[in-house]
Amino acid sequence: MAESTNGSEGVGASTEDRDQILTTWIRSAENETASIGITLLVGGLLVSGMTISLGQWLEALGGSLAKGLGNSGDGAQIGDLFKSRADEWRAERSKETSERFEPVYVHLKDVEIWSGNAFNKFPIWRGRLKSVDGWALGLREGR
Questions:
Q1: Are the CB atoms for 13 and 102 separated by under 8 Å?
Q2: Which are the contacts of 93, defined by CB distance < 8 A and separation ≥ 6?
Q3: Nearest residue to 58 via CA among 107, 103, 23, 94
Q4: Which domain holds residue 78?
Q5: What is the CA radius of gyration of the chain?
Q6: Which of 121, 123, 93, 128 shows the shortest CA–CA distance to 108?
Q7: Which run of H or E residues covers position 114?
Q8: From CA 89, how far away is CA 11, in angstroms rounded?
Q9: Tally of structural domains, the chain
Q10: Tell me, what CATH number does 103's domain have?
Q11: pLDDT (tens digit, 9 = 90+) per residue, 34-68?
């Protein structure tokens, strides 16, 4: 499948072989108008979390890196860098119309990744939308 992108974040992909209902939910998250609990089947794993935008994901990533490096000095610079990139992305995104925007990635927060009965928790997660084999609204029971 040919895929076109807009910028380094892979925004603007072909809609072939894409679940349009799931894409609509992800687009709402990218517009920062809605965050929903969702469970995805990806490569045999269940990935369950709350949808967020790329901007929110970048801010959370920067915050985690800053905290890990200490919130002063290098850590603060890295946190600021990711916050700045999130702001740039929002400015670029506001120029696009919702009809033209086709997400390439799914961004989640408060994530649990399940393999059988075992799971691991992660603060954030990013995966390719075209890698999703199936999905259900709501978070996985037993969280």
A1: yes
A2: 11, 30, 31, 54, 55, 101
A3: 107
A4: 20-137
A5: 16
A6: 123
A7: strand 105-115
A8: 10
A9: 1
A10: 2.30.30.100
A11: 889 999 999 999 999 999 999 999 999 988 888 88
